[in-house]
Write a structure and sequence with these properties.
399 residues, mainly beta, Immunoglobulin-like, 2 domains, 9-stranded antiparallel beta sheet, 6-stranded antiparallel beta sheet, 3 helices, 26 strands, disordered C terminus
Length: 399
């Protein structure tokens, strides 16, 4: 009897070592203590293009286990994702799709995001899956960056000089970065779970508005009229990295973006031109001070103006030839971003989240242009940002 009792206690000890009561410690695929989990996506009123597939990472917190799953955004079907056996970063999909995914029981954090974005460097996701010791907080994805004259940039400002050359560029038009997470989810055996994600875009729609006030010079008692034909811009202070486990943007490094404004239909006698541009970026980090014009939070502009040819030349189609001039200027958006912040910066000053899904930046200071140069403001009294002129190029083109 004593021997039987000892064997029984020894067997119980082995059972306790092998499997804990709350979280299954046996890390074997064939272990019976698994739970069926399915995923659905609620896209709400999303108007942008929805990705076909989302990556779900089921991250078990105690006795960490990482389970990556590719899930269709519309019907919830998918497959378990596994690192390529050869050790390459590519993933190998399963031959068949499933509605429910069996994972070991335990306490989980589930997070999901779209991998279908050619402008993102997401090698850390694969590294996270392949390295058991790597924590989820180290999953950082980055925008691809480019030099100013790189032909791979989909939009570049023509014939201009960069006077804020502290960083590289991201693309003007990129796909949304969708993200959502479910924390502290208790997944118990003997049950099935239908989990619902409500992804939101980590980027921010920003509408930029500013006025160009036209000041006409007088020559020989005649006003010298001109037209503003086109305007281009560049914005700096754009965070280019995301912590995909938390949804925060990283502030260690920021980049820039060149963008066009809406088409301008200016009459030469009109006294002002309203400019608007819509961009989609993670946000804008403001400058540290309102008086510096290098680094984050600076907007540069390139204005193309034209006047009738003073010699009265006529184009082949019978219209009067016009001579053009391009004018460059810049503005520190310190006060504008203080009144309408784009980012909510964490206490460590290293991470931030966007303040709202969309933002309107209406620059109070008019850019005063006399057809030849930007008439500079002298101060920023009243918390209004200041335009500065950078360069002028006379007669760079004919119209």
């Amino acid at each position: 009897m004593k021997r039987f009792t000892s064997l029984f206690l020894f067997s119980c000890l082995l059972l306790v070592i092998a499997c804990q009561t709350d979280v299954e410690l046996c890390d074997r695929d064939e272990h019976p203590h698994t739970v069926g989990v399915s995923f659905k996506y609620d896209w709400g009123g999303t108007k942008a293009s929805i990705p076909n597939n989302m990556l779900v990472i089921a991250n078990r917190i105690v006795n960490m286990k990482k389970t990556p799953i590719s899930v269709n955004s519309y019907n919830g079907k998918g497959y378990f994702v596994a690192p390529n056996p050869a050790g390459t970063p590519a993933f190998t999909p399963a031959d068949s799709l499933m509605d429910s995914f069996w994972i070991p029981k335990g306490t989980y954090k589930f997070f999901t995001f779209n991998m279908e974005n050619d402008e993102l460097i997401n090698s850390s996701v694969r590294e996270y899956v392949e390295k058991p010791e790597m924590p989820k907080e180290d999953i950082i994805i980055h925008y691809r960056t480019y030099e100013r004259n790189d032909t791979l940039l989909k939009f570049r400002i023509p014939s201009w000089t960069d006077h804020n050359y502290y960083s590289e560029y991201i693309q003007y038009a990129t796909s949304p970065i969708y993200f959502d997470s479910l924390s502290n989810m208790e997944i118990d055996e003997g049950k099935t779970y239908a989990l619902r994600f409500r992804p939101h875009d980590l980027t921010q729609k920003i509408d930029i508005y500013f006025n160009i006030a036209k000041e006409f010079k007088t020559k020989n008692n005649t006003l010298q009229y001109f037209t503003v034909d086109s305007v281009f811009g560049e914005i700096s202070g754009i965070p280019s990295a995301f912590n995909i486990a938390t949804g925060y943007v990283e502030l260690e490094k920021t980049n820039k973006m060149m963008f066009p404004t809406d088409k301008i239909n200016d009459d030469e006698k009109a006294k002002s031109v309203r400019c608007h541009a819509e961009i989609h970026i993670p946000g804008i980090l403001p400058s540290r001070l309102p008086t510096i014009y290098m680094g984050a939070g600076i907007m540069q502009v390139m204005i193309f103006c034209s006047v009738e040819d003073p010699d009265g030349k006529i184009n082949p189609d019978g219209t009067k030839e016009r001579r053009g001039k391009k004018i460059q200027g810049k503005i520190n958006l310190f006060n504008t971003l203080a009144a309408t912040p784009s980012l909510d910066v964490a206490e460590d000053n290293k991470h931030a989240k966007k303040t709202k899904p969309s933002l309107k930046l209406d620059i109070k200071a008019d850019m005063k242009v006399n057809g030849e140069s930007i008439m500079e403001s002298t101060d920023d009294k009243g918390g209004i940002d200041v335009w500065r002129m950078d360069s002028i190029s006379v007669n760079p083109y004919h119209i």
